[in-house]
């Protein structure tokens, strides 16, 4: 179901086509192995990640060249996410390069950027964003207004609280966060926490280095709906932490940075979802073609091909919207959440049809069709649902005027 190069709605450059060909070949050979999807410790295949990092330089593709990145921006990283989605590849790319690295680049001090970004770019440092409250999408401003502190405890009960360390050096964090992608294995945690007491309560981001955290940091890998994602529970009991960047004069600067990072992440998640949808369609079309060769009734297969053609149009429309959003100038493309909503719906439809057309085998947990279906359901829970993404985006942009508010 791959689009012809000359009519590709993503309008890829020759360099981007070469990245796609090289990455697709690598993932086709390695990412589909059971060990690459269900690694018991890291949640991903370290050997595959080393090749993605060392040979292809994928973690630093969108990072500035001065920090060891390639400076190729969001469109190039979207292309990579599309291919990892197509293969359902388990890797730290989403948690590290999509969610955490942009925040370090946007908020970090010069010393923090110089220390952390080159290590992220070469793949030697993986990161995780720990947002308390159970809703990563809300923390990133995708499904709700993150300028209120309710998503992270509101400075009262719950969430993560930050208080000065007894020696006056840094902060101590106390609280917990659930659904932290790759939180069990990341080499660096970015933790959203309240500080300043009730009168000056504000949400800031702190760096937690697990090797320096001591026994107060407990990270537990959870069993997720999607075996290619690795959510974790993170408990902090007086864990030492360092503020990311400087304490801003305007506390809303942090939530605005989170929202901008969220809109860019929405584009990359949309690319990943459209890649997964295309992967599901490719495999389903292959199965239909095999049935035709085996002499199955033509009428039923012709109807299946009509349904797949309709789904192909839906997926390609989502893909075109995604790459338009990826090229949108400025921080945090406003059309990112719209693209993500479209992509999540396309993935859900394509994965559902894949399970249906594969019959009883498609419902088996180990079958690829079922894996795509689980990815669709998990993404809706983590980053959706699509209706709330559209409603929040319409409210932000004023698309529906006063009715949206």
Automatic annotation (TrEMBL):
Entry-linked Pfam families: Acyl-CoA_dh_1 (PF00441), Acyl-CoA_dh_N (PF02771)
Residues of the Acyl-CoA dehydrogenase/oxidase C-terminal domain: 267-396
Domain Acyl-CoA dehydrogenase/oxidase N-terminal span(s) in chain numbering: 13-123
Alphabetically ordered keywords of this record: FAD, Flavoprotein, Oxidoreductase
EC number(s) on file: 1.-.-.-
GO MF terms, alphabetically ordered: oxidoreductase activity
Cofactors: FAD
InterPro entries reported in the protein's UniProt record: Acyl-CoA_Oxase/DH_mid-dom_sf, AcylCo_DH-like_C, AcylCo_DH/oxidase_C, AcylCoA_DH/ox_N, AcylCoA_DH/ox_N_sf, AcylCoA_DH/oxidase_NM_dom_sf
Matches recorded under PANTHER family: ACYL-COA DEHYDROGENASE (PTHR43884), ACYL-COA DEHYDROGENASE FADE28 (PTHR43884:SF20)
Similarity remark: Belongs to the acyl-CoA dehydrogenase family.
Protein name: Acyl-CoA dehydrogenase family protein
Organism this protein belongs to: Streptomyces omiyaensis
């Amino acid at each position: 179901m791959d689009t012809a190069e000359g009519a590709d709605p993503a309008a890829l450059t020759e360099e981007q086509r070469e990245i796609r060909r090289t990455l697709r070949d690598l993932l086709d050979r390695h990412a589909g192995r059971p060990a690459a999807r269900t690694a018991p410790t890291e949640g991903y295949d370290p050997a595959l990640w080393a090749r993605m990092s060392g040979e292809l330089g994928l973690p630093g593709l969108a990072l500035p060249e001065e920090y060891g990145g390639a400076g190729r921006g969001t469109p190039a990283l979207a292309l990579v996410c599309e291919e990892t989605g197509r293969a359902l590849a388990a890797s730290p790319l989403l948690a590290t390069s999509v969610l955490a690295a942009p925040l370090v680049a946007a908020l970090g001090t010069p010393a923090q950027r110089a220390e952390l970004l080159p290590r992220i770019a070469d793949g030697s440092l993986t990161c995780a964003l720990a947002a308390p409250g159970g809703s990563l999408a809300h923390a990133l401003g995708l499904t709700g207004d993150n300028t209120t502190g309710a998503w992270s405890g509101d400075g009262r009960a719950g969430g993560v609280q930050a208080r000065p360390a007894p020696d006056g050096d840094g902060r101590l964090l106390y609280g917990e966060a659930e659904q932290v992608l790759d939180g069990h294995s990341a080499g660096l945690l970015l933790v959203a926490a309240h500080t300043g007491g009730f009168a000056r309560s504000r949400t800031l981001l702190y760096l937690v280095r697990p090797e320096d955290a001591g026994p107060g940091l407990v990270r537990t890998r959870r069993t997720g709906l999607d075996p290619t994602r690795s959510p974790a529970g993170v408990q902090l009991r007086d864990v030492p932490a360092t503020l990311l960047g400087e304490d801003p004069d305007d506390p809303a600067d942090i939530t605005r940075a989170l929202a901008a990072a969220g809109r860019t992440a929405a584009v990359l998640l949309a690319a990943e979802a459209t890649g997964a949808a295309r992967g599901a369609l490719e495999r389903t079309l292959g199965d239909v073609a095999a049935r035709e060769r085996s002499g199955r009734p033509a009428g039923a297969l012709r109807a299946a091909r009509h349904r797949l053609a309709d789904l192909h149009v839906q997926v390609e429309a989502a893909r075109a919207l995604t790459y338009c959003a990826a090229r949108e100038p400025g921080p945090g493309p406003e059309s990112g959440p719209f693209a993500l909503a479209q992509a999540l719906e396309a993935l859900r439809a394509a994965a559902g049809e894949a399970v249906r057309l594969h019959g009883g085998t498609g419902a088996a947990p180990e079958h690829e069709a079922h894996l795509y279906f689980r990815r669709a359901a998990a993404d809706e829970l983590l980053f959706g649902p699509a209706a709330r993404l559209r409603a929040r985006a319409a409210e932000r942009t004023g698309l529906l005027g006063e009715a949206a508010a």
